[in-house]
């Protein structure tokens, strides 16, 4: 009878571990979707919310102000990412997206560098499932 209880306990514990997902795996598909793109823009849940279009937009960044902006050619329509700090290494930061192009995202928390290369920086927040692809202009220290 004791052996049966131990076997039952072992099976229960095994099932518990088999069913639990690592938190990093929860957004793996969305992160991979972001990493598979090199199009500057804002992404949520693995889908583009706003993509930079060379023909219609201008890109502005001021790393000293922690500001990254996509705007129309006239500068009247814009969407801006304002960070509290520039993330580096494993450091994380918070930020918000505002503007008048229909996208407003307050409370972007725990934003970190998912990947960077000579051309782009991929930022990601697991908390909000929001990602950004930015040109690596003035961000080479990240």
UniProtKB/TrEMBL annotation:
It comes from the Bacteria. This is Conjugal transfer protein TraN.
